[in-house]
Design a protein that fits this description.
Structural class: mainly alpha
Order of helices and strands: HHHHH
Helix content: over 70%
Largest sheet: none
Number of strands: 0
Number of domains: 1
Oligomer: single chain
Strand content: under 5%
CATH superfamily: HPT domain
Distance between the termini: 32 Å
CATH class: Mainly Alpha
Radius of gyration: 14 Å
CATH architecture: Up-down Bundle
């Protein structure tokens, strides 16, 4: 996990209306990252581009700009024809961010249940 993926997240900065949706976002993003890795293994770069675009859009909708930016960088790398090791680095960054969110939800599930 990179330092960026460890330091970008502040649970207190999440919009209270969005907080109850973070567990679902975390789960869906994890599923999409698995799909991205599978697509990379199959050299399905168009499938990867579509999934990266989806992650970018959903992260932006939730207000997770660093995840959206990292997904946009992956999408751009795919469009530019980056090689598998470069794409894997992008996926590692996104995975680190998703794991940061997942750990926050698991550490304090009550904080992500809704308005308090």
């Amino acid at each position: 996990m990179t330092e960026r993926s460890q330091s970008w997240f502040d649970p207190d900065a999440i919009d209270p209306l969005v907080k109850p949706l973070v567990p679902l976002f975390t789960q869906l993003t994890g599923d999409r990252l698995e799909g991205l890795r599978a697509a990379l293994g199959q050299s399905d770069f168009e499938g990867m581009r579509r999934l990266a675009h989806t992650v970018k859009g959903s992260a932006a909708s939730y207000g997770f700009a660093p995840i959206a930016t990292a997904a946009a960088a992956l999408e751009k790398a795919l469009i530019a024809g980056a090689d598998a090791p470069a794409l894997s680095k992008h996926l590692d960054e996104l995975s680190g961010m998703q794991l940061t969110l997942k750990a926050a939800v698991e550490a304090d599930p009550i904080a992500f249940q809704g308005m308090h």
